[in-house]
Structures are given as C-alpha cells and as structure tokens.
Write a structure and sequence with these properties.
By secondary structure, the protein is mainly β. The protein has one domain: YVTN repeat-like/Quinoprotein amine dehydrogenase (Methylamine Dehydrogenase, Chain H, 7 Propeller), CATH 2.130.10.10. Strands 2, 3, 4, 5 and 6 form a 5-stranded antiparallel β-sheet that branches. A hairpin with a 5-residue loop joins strand 13 and strand 14. It is globular, with a radius of gyration of 19 Å.
C-alpha cells in the first residue's frame, strides 16, 4: 500500500465553512467511537462502537453489567437502520489497521481484532479474527489504542499501543497471521492512562496521557521502567493525543477533567458531570522535551478525541465533550466550523477517506445519537 497524506496545504481548506447534516440516527446503546474504513473499496463503511453500563444501586460495577455493540453503516445508507450489527464487549476505542482489520479495545480488558467481510451480494459484516485478554482483571478497562502505520499504511511489522484504567501502556505486535504478542509494557501513570499513540514518523516512540495530568514520551526499545520525557504542563487529565502525519516532530494533545469523563464510563447517571474541565488543544514540538507547548487554542469543551483528515492533513476534527465537534486548521489551530447538533457528550468523530468531499461521522453519548455530516464552503444561507 502506498504512503498516504500527500496533500499540500491549501487555504481553501479553511475558507468560510458551514456544516450540512446528512443523517441522524439513534443507537440502542450509548455510542462513544466512530471509525471510517480506509481500505479501498470499503471507504463508504463506518464502524460505530457502543458502551453501556446497567444501573447499580451501590455504584460498583461488574463485567456482567457492561455491554456493547458494533454497528456498520454505509455513507449511501439513508435508512433508519444500520447495515450490520454484532454484539461485542463494551467498546471504548476502535481503529482500522490500514486494511480490513478493525482493532477494538473494550471495558472487559480485551483487545479484539475483527475482520470486515463482503459477501457475493455486497452485504458487509464483521467476523472474529483474533481476541486477546491483555489485562489481569475485568475491572481494568482498555481505554485507547493506536496503530503504528497510520502515516505509511504499511501492513508489515504492525503494532498496536494500548492504554488502560490502571495507568499502564502496552505495545502489542500483530503478526501476519494476526497473532498477538506483548513486546513492551510500562506502568507509567498514577491513575487512568486515558490515551496512548505512536509517533507516526518514529514508531519506536509512543506518547501517553493520564488522569495524573502528565504527558509522557516512551522509547519502546527500553524496558519501560522510566519515560524518556515527562511534561507536567497540563492542568487536567490528558485524554487525547495525535501525532501529526503531515509534519514531523509535531504532537497534538487535549485535556478533560477526570470526573466528567470517568462517570460516563462507570455510571448511567449524569448528576456527577458538573465539574469544570480544561478546554485547550495544545501543539508540541517533540524535539524540545515537551517543556512548553508551541501553540494552544481554547475549543470550548474538554477534548476527548482528535482526528486528522486522511487526504488533507491540515484539517483537524475534535470531539469536545459538551461543546460539540470543532474543525480546525493544524497549522495555526484556527477554527473553521463547529457542528453542534448533538445534545450530549461529544465522544466519537472521524473523517471519510475522500479527496473530493469533507465528510465526517460523529456520535454523542447520553442522547445515543450517531450522525453523518458534510463540511461545505459558503455561509449558512447557502445550505
């Protein structure tokens, strides 16, 4: 597979923009993750992951009370049903591996690999490819994952980095036969390790962010006993990270107050969501030891996910919890447009793999809303 992200910055990418809703659909379970498939021939497919906790009187939860489901949608599907669904563990993060493999992290301590298939009649479905329990207890949630080939698309020597609710990160080697082996592990955060990602230019380096408000850099060729760099510049939990595929040595990070995030994953109530939270997106030059961010922008809400347009790397999308979804320029973090039709916590967002159109999918939690939408040039009067 050839390298991706060859687009050159075009000022038209950040001209006056408006959003147009293409579809809004309610999911049965609360959604928290959307991922648009990158594989040629399947780029109209969106995976939607859900996570739900059954009510508990004492605020203590077992694995039996957590459930999840993964839906598949097509960009041409305007019906009120998904084209495929399968029960799964409670999903917390998903990523396509550059082909038809979907990696899924869940709240039962598992990493699963699912395979996207199409039958003779063109119907798509997900089937089991491999599953591995990578933690010692079902009380340890696998919170995030990231592939090491996001910039190159190479299918050889693929690895995944995972983060979990006990403050650890792991690197998992994925063989060509889709067998899984842990090659690096570090207990690096005092509380939840909300997020981890690879340096897309230097895959021997990973970044992690935790509820201890620390951003860390790790070299996976070491034994994992200590981080290479530690930044304490954050004033809230680090919940989102993204290595810039369009610019070497650049990292984006976002933050969110822990109580607002964690109660979404352990509780079905919303009365614990009154905490204030940090609302800044930060840009780091990774060559300076993460001493000071190069730039920052207040986006109006705690940042749960950051996504980069696969064909126009100057375009970023952020899921900003209570402030909807914001499109920004990667060069100066200038806000282009905001999509705020969701009435609950904005958790999942992703771009379609298209050079011609700026299509996105998104989901929000308590209102169980999944949306597909488009960003267009012009003003509101044009839509």
């Amino acid at each position: 597979m050839s390298r991706r992200h060859h687009a050159i910055f075009n000022s038209r990418d950040l001209a006056m923009r408006v959003t147009k809703s293409l579809l809004k659909r309610e999911t049965e379970l609360t959604p928290d993750s959307v991922e648009w498939c990158p594989l040629e021939g399947f780029r109209d497919i969106v995976a939607v992951g859900t996570y739900q906790v059954e009510k508990s009187d004492n605020e203590e939860f077992s694995g039996d009370q957590r459930q999840g489901r993964i839906y598949l949608d097509k960009s041409c599907n305007d019906r009120d049903v998904f084209v495929h669904s399968r029960d799964h563990g409670p999903v917390l993060d998903m990523k396509w591996g550059g082909d038809n493999v979907l990696a899924v992290a869940d709240a039962l301590g598992r990493l699963s690999l699912l395979s996207l298939e199409k039958d003779e009649e063109g119907h798509v479905s997900l089937s089991d490819a491999q599953a591995k329990s990578i933690v010692a207890s079902e009380d340890n949630l696998v919170l995030s994952l990231d592939w090491n080939n996001r910039r190159t698309g190479h299918l050889e020597d693929r690895q995944l980095v995972l983060s979990d609710s006990q403050g650890s990160v792991q690197v998992i080697q994925v063989s060509n036969q889709r067998e899984l082996q842990c090659t690096f592990e570090s207990r690096c955060h005092d509380f939840e390790a909300w997020i981890a990602c690879f340096d897309s230019w230097h895959p021997q380096v990973i970044f992690s962010g935790g509820d201890d408000s620390k951003l860390k850099v790790h070299d996976i060729r070491t034994d994992g006993t200590s981080a290479v760099f530690v930044s304490k510049e954050h004033t809230a939990g680090v919940t989102s990270l993204l290595s810039n595929v369009g610019k070497e040595h650049e990292l984006f990070s976002g933050r969110c107050q822990h109580s607002r995030v964690y109660h979404s994953f352990i509780s079905t109530t919303t009365n614990a969501l009154r905490s204030s939270y940090d609302e800044r997106l930060l840009v780091w030059d990774t060559r300076n030891g993460l001493r000071r961010p190069r730039m920052e922008r207040n986006v109006g809400g705690g940042i749960w996910r950051i996504r980069q347009h696969p064909c126009k790397p100057n375009l970023l999308a952020t899921a900003c919890m209570g402030a909807g979804f914001v499109l920004l320029g990667a060069e100066q973090l200038e806000e282009s447009v905001r999509y705020d039709v969701h009435g609950s916590l904005a958790y999942g967002v992703d771009f379609c793999w298209s050079r011609e159109r700026d299509l996105l999918a998104s989901c929000s939690f308590y209102d169980r809303l999944y949306s597909r939408w488009e960003v267009l040039e012009g003003s509101e009067d044009d839509v």
